[in-house]
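Write out this protein's structure.
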Amino acid sequence: MKETAIFAGGCFWCMVKPFDTQPGIFSVTSGYTGGHVVNPTYEQVCSGKTGHTEAVEIVYDPEIISYEELVEIYWQQTDPTDAFGQFQDRGDSYRPVIFYQTQEQKFVAEKSRAALQTSGRYDQPIVTKIEQQKPFYPAEEYHQDFYQKDPKRYQAETTPRQKFLQAHWGKEK
């Protein structure tokens, strides 16, 4: 059995490894969603004129890892208080969004967001959007599995994120 989850949390390069390394994950694909241009390119998305955001599409086995668990991993990869990008990546194409496919996914995401808001972990409002899934377009091949292709650059890209996550979650994510 396979199901799909789509999460946007800033640079898609930084969002692959935390999911890709979990049991029950078949694939994690970097791509674009939420916009109005069919099959956009990286350059088009970066222009800010397509309405897309960088995201990851996760294909998983719900008997091994639940959607709830994926949402919890998601929160531990992002700054849910920043609606205008993530870490050094700024603008709409880097906004944090959970894209749901079913009403059950929407319910799980909303319940989890509410729990995070009342947890006291953050002193600012949780602003991550929960939106209905739109078409997902895989990014160019050179963006796929970036953490494996260029580990040094991946490490440099994730350093600000790691410092923030460690401050809020107590350990390196």
